[in-house]
Design brief:
alpha+beta; 42% strand; four-stranded antiparallel sheet; 195 residues; six-stranded antiparallel sheet
Length: 195
């Protein structure tokens, strides 16, 4: 004898099972979405990575750096001791790249990519372009790799610049200035394109 299941009961069982399965999946999906959202939510970066690029004539100049914050600290003469090499940023050394020769302080900086370092002092800074651009901080800094060194006079600002900031300012089609500002200190130097 064959058991006959009415079609309506079979259909009800299939629909009920499918609805029950759909409800289980619906309960799981929000949890997965929340995990993805949490893992994708941006964390506050203390020293964001920044790149500044300017084109003057046929010359492109780029500065790449991590921008630390003051965060209620004394920076120059405190966190950063005077008269010591600083990678002019956080984490990896700051680097500057130019596709054409520049004249800075009456000296030629050949086209290329350079680690940018400074030696901050109270009344005078040493600005350094070093051939070893790819290094963590100043861990591998060697004065023998310096391509160009010169002095710059720091200026003091009345307001605090919370995050280290570099600017490349175009004066005209042949010259400009590079500046860095952080805490209450501002340092700037001029450059010309080599003709």
């Amino acid at each position: 004898m064959r058991l006959r299941i009415p079609f309506s009961l079979l259909l009800y069982t299939l629909v009920f099972t499918a609805c029950k399965q759909e409800k289980k999946e619906a309960e799981i999906i929000p949890e997965q979405s929340q995990i993805e959202t949490i893992s994708k939510s941006p964390q506050k970066v203390l020293s964001p990575h920044i790149s500044t690029i300017v084109i003057i004539g046929d010359t492109q100049i780029q500065i790449n750096y991590s921008s630390p914050g003051v965060r209620n600290r004394m920076i120059f003469g405190g966190l950063l001791a005077y008269d010591q090499v600083w990678q002019a940023g956080a984490h990896m050394a700051t680097w500057i790249e130019t596709n054409n020769d520049l004249i800075i302080d009456d000296k030629v900086l050949p086209a290329g990519k350079y680690g940018f370092f400074t030696i901050p002092s109270k009344n005078e800074w040493t600005v350094i372009f070093n051939s070893n651009w790819n290094q963590h901080g100043k861990d591998e800094y060697n004065e023998k790799d310096d391509v160009l060194r010169f002095k710059a006079i720091p200026k003091t600002s009345g307001e605090i610049i919370e995050h280290l900031e570099y600017k490349i300012i175009k004066a005209n089609e042949k010259e400009g200035a590079i500046s860095l500002a952080w805490e209450r200190v501002f340092v700037s130097f001029n450059f010309q394109l080599k003709q």
